[in-house]
Specification:
The structure holds two protein chains of two kinds.
Chain A lengths: L5 E7 L6 H9 L5 E6 L5 H7 L3 E5 L5 H14 L4 E4 L11 H9 L4 E6 L7 H18 L11 E4 H7 L8 H11 L4 E6 L12 H16 L1
Parallel strand pairs in A: 1-2, 1-4, 2-3, 5-7
Antiparallel strand pairs in A: 4-6, 5-6
Helix pairs in contact in A: 5-7, 5-8, 7-8
Chain B lengths: L1 H9 L5 H19 L5 H6 L5 H40 L6
Helix pairs in contact in B: 1-2
Classes of the chains: A alpha/beta, B mainly alpha.
């Protein structure tokens, strides 16, 4: 895959202390990077701009899903054919980017990262994730071992089919549901992950919200 | 509350139809409180033991309706704001 054919999109919210390291890691693989600062109250935008990458900024915080959408649409408008999404807090190692692209080149519509949920994951998250996986599998016919991983890659054509409505943390689950619903060709790549901030990410309340959204994804 | 509805209408924050609805609603409550017997017939027909029970059901129906209206309107507003903010961010995609 040619360098200009893919972009890495990094949604970030209050990640001034980490975004530089994340961007430097990604730069080893591509210069096509879009950081979407989702209305951070810290200097995320300024720090990212210093790393000489494209920075888009939401004037107010809209949520991860909206930031992902902005970044992905910008990438496709700039000529990308494939987009790799990864979190801005440094929990995803950019070394897996070539593997994602390889799988896309093999003809997969979408490639998901999958964390090893047996080690280092808080029990509540582990159980919630598994319950969600089984539920989504029953309703949409797609089983993903790690439902909430934000490290993924997909093509422009795929985006038209999985375009999500969730503006907040339900986004990863919605993408999985739409992948199953549209019977897209998908695969998973096992990845390592580091839980850096226990106060960020999906909370129990978010998880309840996601559960209530599932019927909507079934009919829309 | 009638005064508050009137005030918002004068400030052009609600339209004529809305102020009419609220004034009728509040006058209705006052009337029913003063003369609860006027509802006895309908209460009996609907098998409510007391007029108060009937009024409670009506009140919950109105509350549910208003709650739904608020939900829809806040969702619509949220969507509009999201579109606006995202559009503004995307316009800067060619800047380095």
């Amino acid at each position: 895959m040619k360098d200009k054919d893919f972009f890495v999109v990094i949604p970030a919210y209050n990640e001034a202390s980490r975004i530089d390291k994340v961007v430097r890691g990604v730069k080893k693989f591509t210069e096509n990077i879009i950081v979407v600062d989702d209305g951070s109250s810290d200097k995320t935008s300024k720090v990212a701009k210093k790393s000489k990458v494209k920075v888009l900024r939401h004037r107010i915080n809209l949520g991860k899903g909206a930031a992902m959408k902005t970044g992905v649409e910008a990438a496709f408008l700039l000529g990308a054919e494939t987009v790799v999404l990864m979190d801005g807090d440094g929990q995803h190692d950019p070394k897996y980017i070539p593997q994602f692209l390889e799988k896309i080149s093999e003809g997969y519509d979408i490639v998901f990262g999958s964390r090893n949920l047996s080690f280092g994951v808080p029990l509540v998250r582990f159980l919630g994730n598994k319950f969600g996986s089984v539920l989504i599998s029953l309703l949409f016919g797609i089983y993903r071992s790690d439902l909430l991983c934000g490290f993924m890659a997909f093509t422009k054509k795929t985006y038209q089919k999985i375009k999500w409505d969730s503006s907040r943390y339900g986004v990863e689950t919605e993408i999985v549901a739409r992948t199953g619903k549209n019977k897209l060709k998908y695969t998973e790549i096992p990845i390592e992950t580091i839980y850096i901030d226990k106060y960020k990410g999906v909370t129990i309340l978010d998880a309840i919200g996601i559960l209530f959204s599932i019927p909507r994804w079934l009919i829309s | 509350m009638i005064y508050v509805a009137f005030l918002h209408w004068k400030r052009k924050e609600i339209n004529g139809g809305e102020v009419f609805f609220w004034i009728v609603l509040w006058f209705g409550f006052i009337f029913v409180n003063l003369f609860p017997d006027v509802l006895l017939n309908i209460t009996k027909k609907l098998f409510f033991a007391r007029v108060m029970d009937f009024l409670m059901v009506i009140a919950f129906m109105i509350l549910a309706f208003l709650g739904f209206q608020n939900h829809v309107s806040s969702k619509r507003m949220e969507k509009k704001i999201e579109e606006l903010i995202r559009k503004e961010a995307l316009e800067k995609k060619n800047e380095k």
